[in-house]
Amino acid sequence: MAVDVRDPKSGFRHCDVVVFINEEVLRNGGGPGFYLTFRSRRWKDIEDSLKSIVADTHIPSTIKRACAWSALALGVRVASRQREKQSRRVQHLHNQVEEHEAATWTLATDLQRLRDERDEVVSELRSARDNLKQVLQERDMLHKRLIEFELSQQLLAESQGTEYPGAVPWPLIIKEHIEALDTGLQSGQYSVSPKKDKMASITAAASTSLRPQLAADTENMRN
């Protein structure tokens, strides 16, 4: 028997077909040799061997027909083997597609997570910037108050409690120089110089504004 009916790799689905092929092989004086020799070979090898047998004039025509029937069975076997191979390849490609889809989904999820983290960081930076701006404003306000306090203390100390007739009241002088201080802070005049230099310049300005008044008072006292 050339073809085994129970062989799942034969490619045949009907036992009657297998039985008929085996009977034709045996009726023409053939046997399982040709089929068993080429059952794992490529179709090219099978066809080349069959061509050699058919072209050989020393081989009886019955044997040629038996080999032809065996080659037919081998062709079905090769087709079945190629179909299984292609099916495995398709399944492999399908698995790769599923893996790529899963990887794409994972990357998309990671990308969305990174975007959310970026938005959160941007929000935190903006909040920190606003807080820093508020702190700087509070610092400038406290700095201004400190300078106002030191100015008032220094001017009061230099006055030694003496007020000349007709002199400009000290509170008014302090108020005027505080306003000048505000203008200087806003324009950046006092943003770089050290604090002592600021106080010295402000005190000098206050003393300069008092000199004409002091000179007039001294002249009146002499007369």
Automatic annotation (TrEMBL):
* Keyword entries, A-Z: Coiled coil
Q: Out of the domains of life, which is the source?
A: Eukaryota
Transferase as a keyword?
no
- KW Coiled coil (keyword) present: yes
Short name of one Pfam family for this protein? TEX13
Q: Which intervals hold domain Testis-expressed protein 13 A-D N-terminal?
A: 6-149
Gene Ontology terms, MF aspect = mRNA binding
Question: Which stretches are annotated as coiled coil?
Answer: 83-145
The record's comment on protein family reads: Belongs to the TEX13 family.
- UniProt protein name: Testis-expressed protein 13 A-D N-terminal domain-containing protein
